[in-house]
TrEMBL record:
Lineage: Bacteria, Pseudomonadati, Bacteroidota, Sphingobacteriia, Sphingobacteriales
Origin species: Mucilaginibacter terrae
Superkingdom of this protein's organism: Bacteria
Transmembrane segments annotated in the record for this chain: 21-39
Keyword Transmembrane: yes
Name of the molecule in the record: Uncharacterized protein
Amino acid sequence: MQKQKEDYSFWTKYKQFAGNEIMLYIIMVIGIILGIIIFS
């Protein structure tokens, strides 16, 4: 979250690979949030 400009240039260079990575991270984050809500 801190180095947005560097990450942005990185993602634009590797869009095809980054797309799948972003989806995986989003699914992981949603899973973690749901787990915290359920177990809290």
